[in-house]
Predict the 3D structure of the following.
Amino acid sequence: MALHQAAIETIRHGYDSFEIVGGQYQNNVGVVGYTPVVANTTGSVTATGYGNTATAFGNSTTTYSGGQPIIAGSHNQSFIVKMFRDGDPAGGNAVSARGTLGPKWQEAVAQDSHTCL
């Protein structure tokens, strides 16, 4: 993706070839919290009695939900592109912008949204 975008911007700026001469990235994705934990208990009881005596039998079930991690953040990348015109001796190792985009390079330049300025 970086080469594709660099090639498009090279052509848009009136150049023919480019080199990527630097770059950085950042990943700040991580767990920022957890969803609340909720407990729900249900049960039933049966009681029988005779005279002064009572007997009770019962059961209960507790279910828990929640506690899932909340993930947030972003992956970021930036790079530095040095652009050259055809015939510039400093661009001897540069990559052809049109060659990078292929035979339909004009369509790629026309369709791309301007994500790099």
